[in-house]
Amino acid sequence: MDSTAQITARWDAFRQRALGDGMLIESLIREVYSALVRQDGHAIDGGANVGFHTLGLSRRLSLGRVLAVEANASTYQDLQRNTAGCANVRRHFGALQADAAALTVDFHCSSSHPGRSGIQRSWDLIAPGKVQYEPTVTVPATTMDKLVADASWRRLDFIKLDLEGGEFPALRGGERSLRELRPLVVTEHGHLAPQANGFTIEEYYAWLDALGYAAMDPAGQPAGPARPYPFWYLFLVPSERADVLAAHLQAQMSRPLDGA
After folding, report:
1. Terminus-to-terminus CA distance in the chain, angstroms?
2. Pick from 2, 50, 62, 1: which is nearest to 26 by CA?
3. Do residues 56 and 39 make contact, with C-beta atoms less than 8 angstroms apart?
4. What radius of gyration, in Å, describes the C-alpha atoms of the chain?
């Protein structure tokens, strides 16, 4: 194993490269679930978009199931086409959020940056007018706890959330599943999310701690109130498995950058 200084140097290089090449982090995420999630596991791909991770999870979980959730109607059609041949994929049109009683929610589809569609228009907080949106639409609302119950899953092994700032509400809508089933989670983690959704970053980390979850960056370094935004993605892991994930991520950072 390389020294901490060497891993840190490679992480700094990875981070700088990833700021300009988003596929670096996506490839690392795929590597993590390919290595650490069992083939008979179950997963949720929240904010599945056109299915990059849905397809990767489908191949990995050849004996399990993948539930792909997407709320952008046009993107959902692409998701359906791209995963039509995946027998272990179930698709759900709707938005993940916190309120189990909510049946619908307002959704903002971006016409200029489709990947920035979501329940909140977070980008307007720092760059008003930079991202153009279509008229607000109403879409079905659901929670991860409801989806897991409807699927009658007795286990949940992996969750990916890319919801353009709506990740913490989605996590709160899956609190029972996180507490009882203990999945590994990778989640987008933007600094605009607290302001857009009415919470503080201290509340976010306190909530994770109460569930017995640890947060770490893609290099396996801890994240928390003193280091709240180390990267735009975080790995959330049950505390009892944190050492395993940290060691795996640190090993990835010890490899040459192009192999990450």
Report:
1. 15
2. 50
3. no
4. 18
Coil vs helix vs strand at 216: strand
Outline where DSSP puts E strands in the chain: 42-46, 65-70, 89-93, 95-96, 104-107, 137-142, 158-161, 184-188, 213-216, 222-223, 233-238
Note the pLDDT tens digit of each residue in 46-88: 999 999 999 999 999 999 999 999 999 999 999 999 999 999 9
Q: What is the mean pLDDT of the chain?
A: 93
Rounding to the nearest 10 degrees, give the CA dihedral for residues 166, 106, 68, 235.
Answer: 0
- Give the Cβ contact number of residue 81 at 10 Å: 11
d(CA 8, CA 152): 42
Quick check: 257 pLDDT over 60?
no
> Is residue 99 a contact partner of residue 91, using CB atoms and an 8 Å limit?
no
Candidates 185, 167, 189, 218; CA nearest to 28 is: 218
Q: How far are the Cα atoms of 46, 145, 179, 213, 216 from residue 205, in angstroms, in the given order?
A: 20, 20, 15, 9, 11
Q: In what order do the strands lie in the sheet with 104-107?
A: 95-96, 137-142, 104-107
Write the CB contacts of 150 (distance below 8 Å, at least 6 apart in sequence): none
Long-range Cβ contact pairs of 177-180 (< 8 A, separation 24 or more): 177/144, 177/145, 177/148, 178/211, 178/213, 179/211, 179/212
CA distances from 8 to 1, 26, 135, 246 (A): 13, 20, 45, 13
